[in-house]
């Protein structure tokens, strides 16, 4: 169990709330607008210093407060349970505060490393329907947690890309300087693509096995596009596009254009599958990453599942809950009526129930049946 105790202050309508004790499976139930999703946001804040619903800070913070705080005791590898806290402020001029085991930390990457979090919500449909950047973020989440060299290579790639684009935007380009940045960009791009391609090869069979548990769907394929032609070296691609890039003012090919392709019967899966099928495919992708993380590192992640019953019938709710329980991970689930998922867990499952009403959270003892 990654999180032993959670305290929230000033996140949306949660003025002051505490969840203790927590279990492997934690169910938050109550009417819409009660504050259930805000609890999930607080956990995500402890993993990335931001909400999964929006990058904007002001809506996240209670209207009567100037900052919000999420605090938890988190099981950190090699250190046991340690206090982790994040405070964010409404004022853009005030930097956020991150503390891990009493020490101030500047980078949110340290949060993500200590608390891997997966989110399944209405926004996760963007994995199928959204822009390539959403799928790159999904892919990079997995690579980040299994390849220690990924993050510095990714950061340096972004730095090179920014410098190269800046040169391309100038009316008069120093070709020699552009060549220096291009050479470094190409080298880093190859490394980044190598990390992504290797992870993708490992993810595909796990995804296929997970999807088979959730949905009998023959003909669905998952492909990886690296951001430039698979048969041509990136240096050659950039050289061939040099004139066009100078006209457009940006780098047209590279790992920043990478994407995952989900196709069903030779068409985009998002255009063919029903809403319920799409949710199951997205769940399979998210759960597969959890299984792969466990296989490759021995670690588990926290799953935040917002409105689990939505668009899933009883059969598929049971299947999804069984997968999450088998992962031996920690799960936080929201729903309006806990009875919709009471019998989705095994008799052996350790479950904590919390009723959320008008921003107030109360632990409940509920007898479940299986």
TrEMBL record:
Identification of the protein by name: DNA replication and repair protein RecF
Record key words, sorted: ATP-binding, Cytoplasm, DNA damage, DNA repair, DNA replication, DNA-binding, Nucleotide-binding, SOS response
Keyword Glycosyltransferase in record: no
UniProt-listed InterPro entries: DNA-binding_RecF, DNA-binding_RecF_CS, P-loop_NTPase, RecF/RecN/SMC_N, RecF_2
GO cellular component terms attached to this protein's record: cytoplasm
Family: Belongs to the RecF family.
Function: The RecF protein is involved in DNA metabolism; it is required for DNA replication and normal SOS inducibility. RecF binds preferentially to single-stranded, linear DNA. It also seems to bind ATP.
